[in-house]
Design brief:
The protein has 107 residues and is mainly alpha-helical. The chain has one domain. It is 77% helix and 0% strand. Helix 1 packs antiparallel against helix 5. The longest helix has 26 residues.
Length: 107
């Protein structure tokens, strides 16, 4: 497998991250939105609001790092199909928990 093919997931995650961040930020509507895209795209950061009642700087870093970490893991473990399935499963369960546990206004 070539270097480019191996690291393609990581590169794509770096490209996608700013768009996902923008969608998540826009769904917050400067505090007047429903945060739905933030919950779906960044469930770990949004789940932290249950405990901290706001998005803390540490979890902002988590949001910025989330997709590059996914891409890095997929690049390193490229030939193991279950890794991608596991990432999608954990992300999906977390997003569903966000939708169930966090109301429209998380604060």
């Amino acid at each position: 497998m070539s270097f480019v093919q191996r690291w393609k997931p990581f590169g794509l995650s770096l490209i996608a991250t700013p768009f996902f961040l923008l969608a998540g930020l826009a769904s917050g509507g400067a505090g007047h939105g429903d945060y739905m895209w933030a919950k779906i795209l960044f469930p770990y950061t949004m789940l932290s609001t249950i405990f901290f009642h706001s998005i803390t700087p540490v979890f902002i870093v988590v949001a910025f790092a989330q997709y590059p970490v996914y891409g890095f893991i997929l690049s390193i473990l490229n030939e193991k199909k279950f890794v991608g399935i596991a990432i999608v499963a954990v992300h999906t369960v977390s997003a569903v928990l966000c939708i169930i546990l966090i109301g429209e206004s998380f604060s």
